[in-house]
Amino acid sequence: MTADLGMPDLRTGVESVPTLAEGAAPQTAKEFSSDQEVRWCPGCGDYAVLKAVQSFLPDLGLRRENITFISGIGCSSRFPYYLDTYGMHSIHGRAPSIATGLATAREDLSVWVVTGDGDALSIGGNHLIHALRRNVNMTILLFNNRIYGLTKGQYSPTSEAGKITKSTPMGSVDHPFNPVSLALGAEATFVARTIDSDRKHLTAVLSAAAAHRGTSLVEIYQNCPIFNDGAFDAIKGNDTKAEAIIPLVHGEPIRFGNPGPDSTDGQGVKGVVRDTATGGVKVVDVADVGVDALLVHDAHAEDPSTAFAISRLTANDYLHQAPIGIFRQVVRSTYDDQARAQIDAAQRAVDGDPTDRLAALVNGGDTWTVV
Amino acid sequence: MSKQVKQLDRVIIRFAGDSGDGMQLTGDRFTQESAAFGNDLVTLPNFPAEIRAPQGTIPGVSSFQVHFADHDILTAGDSPDVLVAMNPAALKANVGDLAPGAAIILDTHDFTKRNLDKAGYDVNPLDTLGDAGDPLGAFTVHPVDLTGMTVEAVKQYGLSRKDAARAKNMFALGLLSWMYGRPTEGTEAFLSRRFAKVPDIRDANLTAFKTGWNYGETTETFVVQYEVKPAQMPPGTYRNITGNLALAYGLIAGGVRSGLPVFLGSYPITPASDILHELSKHKAFGVTTFQAEDEIAGVGSAIGASFGGALGVTTTSGPGIALKSEAIGLAVMTELPLVVVDVQRGGPSTGLPTKTEQADLMQAMYGRNGEAPVPIVAPQSPGDCFAAAVEAVRIAVTYRTPVMLLSDGYLANGSEPWRIPDVATGSDDLPVIDPAFATEPNHEKADGSKDYWPYLRDEETLARPWAVPGTPGLEHRIGGLEKGEGHGNISYDPANHDLMVRTRQAKVDRIAESLPPLEVEDPSGRAKVLVIGWGSTYGPIGAGCRRVRKAGYDVAQVHLRHLNPFPKDLGDILRRYDRVLVPEMNLGQLSTLLRATYLVDAQGYNQVRGLPLKAAELAEAIGHLVAEAEGIDVDLTVPTDSPTDSPTDTSTTTGATS
Fold this sequence. Notes:
The structure holds 2 protein chains of 2 kinds.
Chain A: H1 45-60, E1 67-71, E2 86-89, H2 95-105, E3 110-116, H3 117-123, H4 125-134, E4 138-144, H5 179-185, E5 190-195, H6 199-211, E6 215-221, H7 233-236, H8 241-244, E7 245-248, E8 255-259, E9 268-274, E10 281-285, H9 286-289, H10 305-311, E11 322-329, H11 335-348, H12 354-362, E12 367-370
Parallel strand pairs in A: 1-2, 1-3, 3-4, 4-6, 5-6, 7-11
Antiparallel strand pairs in A: 5-11, 8-9, 9-10
Chain B: E1 4-8, E2 10-18, H1 23-37, E3 40-46, E4 61-69, E5 82-85, H2 88-94, E6 103-107, H3 113-119, E7 140-144, H4 146-153, H5 161-165, H6 168-179, H7 185-194, H8 199-218, E8 224-228, E9 236-242, H9 243-258, E10 262-266, H10 273-279, E11 288-291, H11 295-307, E12 311-316, H12 318-334, E13 338-344, H13 361-366, E14 376-377, H14 384-399, E15 402-408, H15 409-413, E16 415-419, E17 443-444, E18 450-451, E19 477-479, H16 494-510, E20 519-521, E21 529-534, H17 538-550, E22 556-560, E23 562-564, H18 570-575, E24 579-584, H19 589-598, E25 602-606, H20 615-630, E26 652-654
Parallel strand pairs in B: 1-8, 2-5, 5-6, 6-7, 10-11, 10-12, 12-13, 13-15, 14-15, 21-22, 21-24, 24-25
Antiparallel strand pairs in B: 2-4, 3-4, 9-16, 14-23, 17-18, 20-26
């Protein structure tokens, strides 16, 4: 048996959150910085993300007290301590579950989850996939450095096979997760990937993620200079990144690589087309297929198959190739909106003071009176 | 023909059949009829963990025992006076519990070769009735073709034979309802409601029920009708209620009383799921129920909701508590209100999912890493689950702490008449629960400006302030890392950690200041033996003590609602008696705590059979201790015409004055 749930009004991710009064002075990054000393290792990619978030949050125009950051355990999970918002540094892997309760109980909050590859994909994998399928209104920032940092250098669920670490002296025999593929398989409605050092791209993706109503998953490639330095050199290096990054822009043909010697438009020589043999997608030389044959990125497609196929272009071993951008951005009712709508409907259907209704409840059923 | 009517003061009936035979429903209806009639009663459902265990086998037997009386009773009774057995397996599984002289009503239809084989009977016991060496010789056996008569009676509705036969439980209920003069209107209305959409099934069940009644009235098999008069109960309005329902109502009441919306994060588990089911019906009270992906997410979401200013609740059984332990520790550290309901079942591991036990006390007390004190509250009877739940909410909200509410499988599914409390605002039946959210900065900085310190405590309760997101100016961060006293920022300072560990403990200890004195039942005031218990053993302990007193001996009883912290007067009370007996459905968990805390020689009386303790056996154990303490011979044999389960002229005294 199923019930018609109706469709609550679809809104942006922050529409139900109180904004600053009209004419109020704009907020600053400094207001969002707490008085606590930041204690990541020098050169850690987390600094760049923190700066970007502190600078970006004022752009939302939300009341600072209505913003909450929930994290799990790991280096990146110290994030909430450095933001002057409400926050909770919780336990390993459980941040999505805590955020689910908070977001469902409080429509008026902007809820952010900060997690890492070990926290979200290993110990907390179950909570991540269920948050994504439920589509609770929150934004999950998944810092992926492909290593365990806080426990000092064991391989993570995103480390490449064969990786030599403290716990795998002969090389890891674990096959890694691709977080974007996983999220798409878990029915996520917003899935994006960005890079810690690309402030502009990072901010653009955060902005889209915050605007999305539902669970937004943002994978952030983040360098760990101590235990996995150089993991992202190919996609960060000025000489290599054009060949390594496959930029995804909704409505644009997917094209990358260095321009050819005869290029007049500066566009790369490589592109992505459908692979009719496998049903997936593949990288080709544009010259071989012509510009019109290139796949035009459609992040709003209901069917996640193409987005999934694009996610498979991510290198599994050393990260020499990775699509970057918003893979998927579709509209679906959120768990928390619907749960609140059911409560609203039930409350509208009854009259009277809760105490009177409680008296009626406990006095329900077959009763008898002894005098 | 005219039938004889015989007066009884109490009767114990057990309905037993295959798990698909509808024995739980039959027992529940008989209970509702008895409640409506005004008897006092206690019930004991007992069913397999499998939804449909192999038909006709002993593991597949499901039973429901109801004890009803014309006076105040405390237990579901040790041995049934009447057994209704729907097949050979039901007979075999239950006959051992019967006292000589008990009546057995058998459905002869199901005593086939196949069923007898499945139950392990080489010889059909029906064939040897009355013979020398009849294994049922000690009982009065009534062989009745319940199924055959049911099928015949409902023929007119054109049901399949299988569907027709399924109404046999209503035939049995009708027969028993006649035997004990139960009112039938409630069951007729219930069946009409339940099967409103399937008129043929409805009419077949109603017909089977009425035919069963008429069969009792007209047949010569049954010549005696019994009468158990209504019980004298304290004035009030009553209803029959199970522990899980009362507990769910208590959580709703805690929400209404505190003004907090209830948020339940839960994962289905036997025997706690009915609380989730019940609360999911009460959205009009602002109750949110979140069926989480696992036990950890259940408690995690509740903690998140509490952080947001809701009343976070999670419900589970022992295995679920094991999974939630780390998160409960987070709630200890972050000092957020949280109610953790553990409906205990047989353990360890998956254990006995549908059977009762109280072996999670140590898990509740100590089952976390670090020094992580959690207050523990336990209900003592099904109806008491309401008040215990409200008390758990009071402590959680007032002291900003997770609270363990330890129910058990017997309380969860058992039922009793419940005097409905007055829930009106200002009524003394419910405590005041004030969340007292923080709204203003509470600390002055060196420069004279103000800020908010999340760990600046209330002097009386040692509770920290509760500032919820959305409150301007009180933005702060909490988490699982050790907090600096007052300001709440991360602190690795050794002295601070020592202080915080002691402070968290002191806060829980401080709860004892808010507890009333214990009620010690010591009618003569001369007892040398004290029996102390907690949770659902209240009934058997009370009944055991009554038996001992009835036989002319002195014994005192005290029952704990609060297991952590213990009430302040408990130590004095324990030291007042020469012998202390601690009956528990575990291997001695409360007795260990009492011995460790008070250095008293508390002795255990321990059974872990998945069933409530038996009052008669417990009375013997108490008797032995009385004999030892007073240097006398103790003989508990009492005249058979006096109801052994009845109260003596009890006068209740409080620990402060006696």
